[in-house]
Amino acid sequence: MMPPAVSRAWSCIAHVALVLTAIPGALATTIRTSGTDCVTLGAGGPLQITLDCIDPIYSSPIIDSEIEVTVPVPHHKVSGHFVGTNIDFNIYMPRSGWKGRFFQLVYPLQSSIASDYDIRFGAESGAYTVRVTGSLGYRADAAVAKFARTLAGKYYNRKSTGIYGYVYGGSGGSLVTIGAVENTFGVWNGAVAMIQAVPVSSPDNWSIRGLAGFVLGSKRDMLVNALGPGGNGDPYKDLNQLEKSVLQEVSALGIQLEIWGDDFDGAGLDRKGLFKSLTDIAIANVKLADSSYVDDFWSKPGYIGAEQSALGKFFRKNLFNHQTTITEVQFGTDNLPTAVVLDKIPSNIPNHGLEFTVQVKDGNGTLGPFTADVDLNSKTAVIRANNNPIVLAALVEGAELKIDNRWFLSILGWYRHQVPTRSGFYGYDILRKPNGEPIYPQRSFLLAPAIMSATSGGGTHTGNITTKLIVMDVLRDFDAFPWHADWYKNQVQAALGDRATDQYRLYFGDNADHYISEVTAPDSARLIDAAGLAEQHVRDVSAWVEKGTEPPIATRYSVEKGQVGVPNSASERRGIQPVIDLTTKGAKRVEVKLGRAVDFKAHIEVPPNTGKIVAVEWDFEGTGNYVKRAFGTGRQAIDVKVKNSYNKRGTYFASARVTVTRDGDVTTPYALSRNLDRLGHRQMGADPLMSMLTTSFIYSFIFWSLPSLYFGIISGTFLISDTWHRTHKPIHGMGKPAVTKESLLLNYISPLPQEVIYTAFSNGYYRVAFGSILGQTSPLVAGGVFIFNEEQMTVWASWPSAGYIYAMLLLNCFTLLFLRLNLTYPCGRGLWTILDVASFCFDSPMVQDTGSNHDPTDDEEHIKARVLLEKRKYAYGYYLGILGKRRLGFTWATADSNDQGAQVVSDVD
């Protein structure tokens, strides 16, 4: 439906010029039109075009070729251009199925080649397709529309006056469309303006978005969590006063609050090219129209850069100004610089919005600026395309550069000094005093109205439309704010009075943004492709014109402080889009156990007389990849219930999507009226901390209390038995202590773990004590049972770890009852080594000891502990073995009868 880079439309204002070209006339047919010249509406006003008048610029169309084409449908294709212009065109007339109409998409930057999709859409709608090279205004489009009628009349053998025509366009194309329907008469019979731009849209909207992203960027995650699916809906809770005031301001000016939870990076950061729009279009146009603005911004009262406020301090803190020297210049194939290596770059350099100014060597001024992207690691500034070659020629080794972001920061406050003087723009009331006067100083020139008027072909959005008009706006649009469409509706009502209801409809679509084109994963998890809605509106306006069939009732909505809201039910909301409400047990957010089936319920309502449900799709993991499920039968409202379980922990935003077609066609790709809904869903397994949940107590007991009890009983008993066996059956082959260095030994009189830990702490052997504690509580296993996610602030139980606990529990019970009580080792020491590896003991002496592998010539200091126990002396503890690894081991000898208890001695071999 629309070119993907819709926002580029605004750039045409300052940068698009009509280039006169000499077009070869070989094999071309010139058709000279005749009639009186079209006239303007007042001096310098928009040209008023009728079916009979001649536009002097587009008076001589030339047919370059006429061919028969079979793809995408069999059609007759006429290609041509206008003499003395750069405007060419194509007309695609289907051989069969034509029903007396044509569709014409307009957009300032489009090519004259229609896509196969659009050609087929026209053919399936009974229309031929007209496509014209994009330009400023509607005049070229009108000239081709009239010429195409003449050609179609001959091709279909029908009077051209009996052919209906419909023009439609979005974003910059909506400006062309409005210019057309306010200033032409009989050229088109109906129109659809989508994602509507108005006289305050550009560059003000970019400025508003930029300020919001700049100030609120540090709170991005908080806003996403609060306003996203399953959030608490309160974006102000964790904002400071500065952030609150900025969010309130940009919300009143038209950015829908939900957008910050839906696509913060697109609206306020650079995911959709905001920074490039600000630097390449907004700043470029402000420099042309009001070059002194930047100096006033940083020096005069009433401007953010100079005001003594929290916002002013925030701006000045982020102001970057740096002098550096070029140490190397890198050139491209055209001998122009492509990058410069800089002498010094501070680490706090911004990653966008920088301008580079060249200091002329003789000190007589500067050249520039030019723009570049800086790589901090290599200290290289990569020069962007479309910079002034004269400035680039001054980039030589040793040249001085000034780098700053003065213009970028200043453009973020531009909209405050562009309060419209025209009445009705109520969103700007937040920038006005109670008496209606602007709060901040105003510039002498209002830029946005001039840009919008130029793109509209001189139109000024009077509302005095000459055809039937449907306007479609969407509620997730951060380029064309939704309340702007309401402003234009008021213009139409003021201009037409009672006739407005016979000529005009306004519809809002939900869960769609500014880009009317195919939506792919992962964006399709949260957005629908609004092209289907637009296509249905085009068909509706044609039925309205040709048959008198009233379109469905317009969307019912309200506007409060710049925010457009719609009712939750289809019967109240109306419009043409179905309404869907996705819940699980009546909630929009749920935390469930791993492996448990989740019950999803989608309540779907279709507005009266707008079609039938043809598909219900599910995206359980929020990836944007949908699967169809059966949805039963229903008329205006149905409930669809499904179950789904999850095998991985995590946070999911499950989506359900519904599709409606007007006649119930399940195969067509056109005029699909879609909507979706999402909910927040956290897969958490058994959550011992959420006792308020159903069955939480049972799961907590099984996965928390019971294992802890078993650990205490089994581990304690196991360690007592293990220690007792090791004391009476020490490791063989240790006639003398192993080579050690910085060893830690413990007076191991008692085999009871509690006394071991106490003695270790008392003697300062904290590592030994810690190892003994680990041996009892087995944290390597227990730590894997309950997992804490710091980002999500959730705790859940791990099924594999829990299963391992129970397996080890059974294994230790078995060894304790049938093997460990035997004072001998009936199965050999190897089995005990294997059991030690899998046991709860963190530092098993049998596993970790490396015996007496030491160099007898080594003369290192080591420590022996003499333990009086059954007439034996033991050296027991941690030491550093030959390989430098921490070890735990014994040695023993006959006890000295003079020993009184245990003592630590230091010997040197």
Task: Describe the structure concisely for a colleague.
This protein has 25 helices and 39 strands. The protein has 909 residues and is of the alpha+beta class.
Poorly predicted residue ranges? 2-27, 683-697, 720-752, 775-798, 815-826, 828-909
Tell how many strands the DSSP assignment holds: 39
Rg to the nearest angstrom? 39 Å
Q: Treating each run of at least 4 consecutive H or I residues as one helix, how many helices?
A: 25
Query: What share of residues are in beta strands?
Result: 15-25%
Q: Report the CATH architecture of the largest domain.
A: 3-Layer(aba) Sandwich
Number of domains: 4
CATH superfamily heading of the largest domain: Alpha/Beta hydrolase fold, catalytic domain
Task: Report the CATH topology name of the largest domain.
Answer: Rossmann fold
Termini separation comes to 89 Å
Q: Which strand order does the major sheet show?
A: 1-4-5-6-8-7-9-11-19-20
- Largest sheet properties: 10 strands, mixed
Percent range of helical residues: 25-40%
* Average pLDDT for all residues: 80
Structural class: alpha+beta
Protein name: PKD domain-containing protein
Organism: Dactylonectria estremocensis
Keywords: Membrane, Signal, Transmembrane, Transmembrane helix
